[in-house]
Amino acid sequence: MEQDAVAAVEDADSQLMYRIERPVYDEALIRSQLLKRIENSTTLGQRLAHQFRCSSKKAKAAALSFLPILTWLPSYPVKQYLFSDVVSGLSTGVVQLPQGLAYAMLAAVPPVYGLYSSFYPVLLYTFFGTSRHISIGTFAVISLMIGSVAVREAPDSMFYVLPANGSNMSAFVDVEARDARRVQVAVVLTTLVGIIQFVLGLLRFGFVAIYLTEPLVRGFTTAASVHVVISQLKYLLGVKTQRFGGPLSAIYSVKAVLYDITSTNVSTLILGLVCFIFLFVIKDLNERFKKKLPIPIPGEIIVVIVSTSVSYGMSLSDDYNVDVVGKIPTGLLPPTVPEFSLLPSLVTDSFAVAIVGFSMGISLAKTFALKHGYSVDGNQELIALGLCNFISSFFQTFAITCSMSRSLVQESTGGKTQIAGLLGSLMVLLVVVAIGFVFQPLPQTALAAIIMVNLLGMFKQFRDIPTLWRNSKIELAIWLVAFVASVLLGLDYGLLAAIAFAILTVIYRTQSPDSAILGHVPGTELYCDVDEYEEAAEYEGIKIFHYNSSIYFANSDLYVNALKEKTGVNPEHLQAVRKAQKKQKEKANGNHSFPMKMMSAQERGVTHEVLSYNNVEKEQGNGQLGDGHRESVSEEAVFLEPLSTVHSIILDWSPASFIDSVGAKAIKQVIKEYAAVDVRVVIAGCSRSLLSELDTLQFFHWGHDPRDGVPHRP
Description:
Transcription Regulator spoIIAA; transmembrane; about 10% strand; alpha+beta; two-stranded antiparallel sheet; membrane; about 725 residues; 2 domains; STAS domain-containing protein; transmembrane helix
């Protein structure tokens, strides 16, 4: 019987104890008497029929899942929520309008397409989304990723044309044709992004975002902010440079701006700096007094209105060569079919945009859901984003996700539901339909200032570096690799490199986990690392090996090596010692006429050999076994000292969650090797699922002695 004494409650006066008595169980007893598996009598056809059986309850659940608006709109509390949603919607719309214009520049399309992307997707998300607080629409990182693809597929070099009059003027870029082609690329990319997100949502692949770990996302978005700021330098300075894409594009862009910095437009620079400083001050005031201000000060819309007025009143475009937004068509475009012939070259980019967009959206949605006590469905969010991108792409939009800055405005101003987002999108619709022409004199340098100031919060993520240095060097490496790779290789290749590196760190952690020899802490049922805790004491002749990982093809050899190193028992060395002893004895008995008889006594826990009595007298260190009265031709069993002081090794598999065939073969082999040198290996702490895997792998064999090198049930 086993008696376990466990400390249950400890107070200032005494320690209460309780004692348990139960039989000592082994796996055979558990399976034969204590546990019985539930037999599944249903066939595959029955399970499929049950899965696809349609009922009114299932149909209602499917409808509510696909259209989450049906779960809250019928019971919408007008008196409690409507005023807050109206205030929040107006505040969000005021921010969404200038950001839509600005982020279109990042996407390398005319500004009006940013307004389209700020209306249609927001309208659709109201019906299909599960988050009540995120603001869907244009976002700097996604816009920049789209812009890099558009520039790659439609570079300026494709649209150089010669003057029609045959003069000696150099060729110039056909801006209208170039922008039309880039719009086609952005629209087709958005269509493909929507299809990918929708299909992944139907396949319940909402978990894919977990592969974008937080350090990876933060390093990636910080690098994207660097790209965004670099791309806006030419607009802030008013210089004319080519837009680069692909690896090292950030370096080429900075080089081009510095090369042409002498041609800086002073009027553009002054206006941009004034807008930048004003927005920075407003952001700081909003942050400092956010608890006292009923709504944030709308710095972006103030900059847009004032800079547009100044530009129109002073004729900045005509008199000072300040670049402005230009023509903004009035009204919405009719739906058109995307140019699907561009699809083959955009597949890789669309996957990157789809995953990054979903990752940004679901992370922010979960943050707000946790704060306000509701839940979001990752799979439905994928479906919602997919529908927003796919359907909207037929109306000439580019890919969207949630914006961190607008979402914070929508939530902090009291937004309760997506009615707030809907009202914000209606403000954008009003501008597109009725007053879009008002913003035609808007200077591009003002939009560049808006973009840069909105990304200042992203650069605060550099503060992660000292924190990660203290807490986790591996996560710091992920952050740095994501940042450096994305800055140097571009956002698409940088993301792939960061994900590959993050996966490699997981493999590294499973290949090089902590391992230890455990010892018993007297008076408790605790087993701790003997190298770390002085109270932990080993049992004589027994080694308990703990390895903090599962066992599979990538680490099975490392597991075996760590086992031999930690226990100090290497079967190969012991076998070599045994062979040397045997050879020495055979050599010493080479001149005798009677044969030397060898046999093992593993069942006694020691190694013995049968030697002639005369030969025993010559061996030192094996003990004196006989007297002079024995005959010289008689044989006597001489018991040798064990090759090792360790007779048993216990493998603690409590941390292991799975094992594959390679790992099982490695464990089988090491058990055989130890059995050959009289060391028994047993396994402890197996979970039921791990035992099932071992059964499937035919790890156990019945009817053999456990010391013959065949694995046995613990």
